[in-house]
Design goal:
This protein is an alpha+beta fold. It has 3 helices and 7 strands; from the N terminus they run ββαααβββββ. The longest helix is centred in the middle third of the chain and has 13 residues.
Length: about 140
């Protein structure tokens, strides 16, 4: 592999730039699943001349190369996750907080029948509810 490059999957190499690595670092240094705008703000703090378009393109490259993941949440802007090993998420329906949830060691349920020829390539579980900060003090204890 050439200096300044990294493996991009399927035997490909991708040139690594300061902006690309700053984008990756800005994401991996956080665990709050930032939006693209939040990543852009972090990168701009480190490299002020970096454009918004560069950060957005770099996020897409990192997703394509499976170095990061997109966490889609209906009705909200895409969020990014630097943790690529299998895990699930919890979304607070009141404040929008998005946190990682350790995936149980139990196997994932069998795929449903009747997918009409569709092929499942990944399973992602997202739990929705109230986080401990938004849950009223009188509500029943959460399932831990």
């Amino acid at each position: 592999m050439k200096a300044g490059a990294y493996a991009a999957g399927e035997g490909r190499e991708r040139r690594s730039t300061r902006q690309l690595e700053a984008t990756y670092r800005a994401l991996c240094e956080r665990d709050d699943h930032p939006s693209a705008e939040q990543v852009y703000a972090s990168v701009r703090a480190a490299l002020p001349s970096t454009s918004r378009g560069t950060v957005y393109r770099n996020l897409q490259k990192l997703v394509e190369d499976e170095r990061i993941r997109v966490v889609p949440v209906a009705g909200r802007s895409a969020r990014y996750d630097g943790r690529v090993e299998p895990h699930d998420h919890f979304v607070c329906t009141a404040c929008g907080d998005l946190v990682d949830v350790h995936r149980a060691d139990a196997p994932v349920a069998k795929p449903p029948r009747g997918l009409g020829g569709h092929r499942i390539e990944a399973v992602a579980v997202t739990y929705f509810g109230l986080c401990r900060g938004c849950r009223p003090a009188t509500s029943p204890r959460a399932m831990d």
